[in-house]
Automatic annotation (TrEMBL):
It is found in: Membrane. The keyword Transport applies. It comes from Gracilariopsis chorda. Its main location: membrane. It is a multi-pass membrane protein. GO terms for molecular function: 3'-phosphoadenosine 5'-phosphosulfate transmembrane transporter activity. One of its GO terms (cellular component) is endoplasmic reticulum membrane. Residues 31-43 have a biased composition (Pro residues). This is Adenosine 3'-phospho 5'-phosphosulfate transporter 1. Keywords: Membrane, Transmembrane, Transmembrane helix, Transport. It comes from the Eukaryota.
Length: 382
């Protein structure tokens, strides 16, 4: 889920996306509003397009108690999303064994998307009810607007899952960092955003690191039937993922810009629409009966699918809470660290055997991302 990395913070005109989420209660003790004069609009972060389903708060200085609380948030994000990452690889790249000792790979990644989105929609509805905000159960935007976001979201997620059939998880993870480029291009074309030389330098280093990673060792999934000859299919799927994920994030931002919707309202209807699209596609392709038959024949996959969906949803809520409490900068730092740890864990657990040059490429990517975060933190403190 999302996910996605921070863009450089620059002042921009206020919009619903850049304001504090309406469903977060105002704290009259620490942040008393002026009696009559409204607060000036906060700056809008250029990383909005890469932060899934979330509205931003300005980064604030942390007390010792805040630091401990923020650390718990970071642990929650890293643990849930690392479990999610490893389960993706387990389900898509390792065979399951039936009671009669037959082995087979899970056939359709779209079913995983369906399971994830159903649980996410259910949890969003539960949160709305718990918060006694029943008005948010109604669609704020036309349903077609939610469906438009959902289509690109389903395509992006499915391509990401399917790419694991041909490419190793570290290759897919490092390749996902390259989505910075299409996001910047789309934002430039749609809203005329301006980026600094630092932004383009970071993108150049990230792309160079990705190229080093790809060209310096094995990138093919071990179970691939045609080995290296099928690798281009994996790269094509990654390109589609990068394109549709960039489209998804910019569409989500546009929804927040044009409609006064809550975070959970968007989560509810985008995930619900995504689930309906997944069911429609599975039924149209006659894959749904095949998936259900696989679950019946290989019941050992059920705990993995359940854990995959739970970890994805838990990670999404941990991300949302962290951004609302501490801002996008902390979130981006945690996500960058999590990606590196996921690559390391995958290489150890699934024995991909990354070469020294491949690790060099990975370090180039993560070093560039951390440099970007450092520059953003430096500028925000000036």
């Amino acid at each position: 889920m999302t996910a996605v990395l921070a863009r450089r913070h620059e002042p921009r005109p206020s919009s619903p996306l850049s304001r504090k989420p309406p469903d977060v209660p105002h704290d009259p003790v620490h942040h008393p509003p002026p009696p009559q004069t409204p607060l000036p609009p906060p700056a809008k972060s250029l990383d909005a397009s890469s932060l899934p389903l979330s509205k931003r708060r300005p980064v604030r200085s942390l007390t010792r108690r805040d630091a401990f609380h923020a650390s718990l948030c970071a642990v929650a994000i890293m643990s849930t999303l690392m479990v999610y990452s490893l389960l993706q690889e387990r389900i898509m790249t390792r065979p399951y064994t039936s009671r009669t000792s037959l082995t087979a790979f899970f056939p359709h990644s779209l079913f995983l998307v369906l399971a994830n989105r159903l649980l996410a929609a259910l949890m969003a509805a539960v949160v709305i009810l718990i918060r006694r905000e029943r008005a948010h159960l109604q669609p704020v935007a036309p349903v077609t607007e939610y469906i438009s976001v959902s289509i690109s979201n389903v395509v992006a997620t499915s391509c990401q899952y399917e790419a694991l059939k041909w490419l190793t998880f570290p290759t897919v993870t490092i390749g996902k960092c390259a989505k910075m480029l299409p996001v910047m291009l789309i934002q430039k074309m749609r809203s005329g955003r301006h980026y600094s030389y630092d932004d383009f330098a970071v993108v150049a280093v990230v792309l160079a690191g990705c190229a080093t990673m790809i060209s310096s060792g094995n990138v093919s999934a071990k179970h691939s039937s045609a080995a290296d000859t099928d690798t281009p299919v994996g790269f094509l799927l990654m390109l589609l993922y990068l394109l549709f994920d960039a489209i998804t994030s910019t569409q989500q931002e546009s929804l927040f810009d044009r409609y006064d919707m809550s975070l959970y309202n968007q989560m509810l209807y985008i995930n619900l629409s995504s689930a309906c699209i997944s069911v429609f596609a599975l039924t149209l392709s006659r894959a749904l009966p095949q998936c259900l038959a696989f679950l019946n024949r290989f019941p050992s996959i059920l705990p993995d699918i359940a854990a995959l969906s739970l970890s994805a949803v838990a990670g999404q809520f941990a991300i949302t809470y962290t951004i609302q409490m501490y801002g996008a900068l902390l979130y981006a730092a945690v996500m960058t660290t999590r990606q590196f740890c996921s690559v390391l864990a995958s290489d150890i657990i699934f024995k991909h055997g990354l070469t020294v040059l491949q690790w060099t490429g990975a370090l180039m990517v993560f070093s560039a991302l951390f440099f970007k975060l450092w520059r953003k933190a430096t500028r925000s403190s000036e």
